[in-house]
Amino acid sequence: FFYFYAGICSALKLTVPSHTIHGIEGQPLHLSVDYNFNATASEIQIIWLFERPQSNPKYLLGSVNQRVVPDLEYQHKFTLIPPNASLRINPLHLSDEGNYIVKVNVRGNGTVAASQKIQVAVDVPVTKPTVHTEPSSGVVEHVGNITLKCTVDRGTRVVYQWMKNGKRLHAGPNYTFS
């Protein structure tokens, strides 16, 4: 991963992955977040929020000095992983796709805060493809056409590729694709 830093008064640095994090539906996902600051802290607060486009952010959980306060609705799904501010989502569902916002507040000689947003995309594994032949009886050599239709029941970002004898087929006089 590539990382970037953000802080207020450069006293608090919050490190998060800089690209969209892809997770697999039904599997756990770990959002890695580290923070450091150059002051003495009497209190450290961590807050996690979740937002989808065109909706208000939802509170997931928070902590003060590593004492976690979960939202009761989500307490079995989201876990804060001390001593840093990382979040574990288990299990991941399609409805978990969106932006996760982490905010860290540090109180010492005054309060410093930093927040970052992590975009999460949920991938659904592709099911085994099914191939249908039309006409189902086949064709006689050199006479007529045959259509092969490939479908999958589930899967995100599906790409189809036809091969013959281990080599990719390209459109031409004998093959058309749609």
From TrEMBL:
<dbReference type="InterPro" id="IPR036179">
    <property type="entry name" value="Ig-like_dom_sf"/>
</dbReference>
<dbReference type="InterPro" id="IPR052280">
    <property type="entry name" value="HEPACAM_domain"/>
</dbReference>
<keyword id="KW-0732">Signal</keyword>
<dbReference type="GO" id="GO:0030496">
    <property type="term" value="C:midbody"/>
</dbReference>
<keyword id="KW-1133">Transmembrane helix</keyword>
<keyword id="KW-1015">Disulfide bond</keyword>
<protein>
    <submittedName>
        <fullName>HECA2 protein</fullName>
    </submittedName>
</protein>
<keyword id="KW-0812">Transmembrane</keyword>
<keyword id="KW-0472">Membrane</keyword>
<dbReference type="InterPro" id="IPR007110">
    <property type="entry name" value="Ig-like_dom"/>
</dbReference>
<dbReference type="GO" id="GO:0005819">
    <property type="term" value="C:spindle"/>
</dbReference>
<keyword id="KW-0325">Glycoprotein</keyword>
<dbReference type="InterPro" id="IPR013783">
    <property type="entry name" value="Ig-like_fold"/>
</dbReference>
<dbReference type="GO" id="GO:0007098">
    <property type="term" value="P:centrosome cycle"/>
</dbReference>
<dbReference type="InterPro" id="IPR013106">
    <property type="entry name" value="Ig_V-set"/>
</dbReference>
<keyword id="KW-0393">Immunoglobulin domain</keyword>
<keyword id="KW-0963">Cytoplasm</keyword>
<dbReference type="GO" id="GO:0005813">
    <property type="term" value="C:centrosome"/>
</dbReference>
<dbReference type="GO" id="GO:0005794">
    <property type="term" value="C:Golgi apparatus"/>
</dbReference>
<feature type="domain" description="Ig-like">
    <location>
        <begin position="129"/>
        <end position="178"/>
    </location>
</feature>
<dbReference type="Pfam" id="PF07686">
    <property type="entry name" value="V-set"/>
</dbReference>
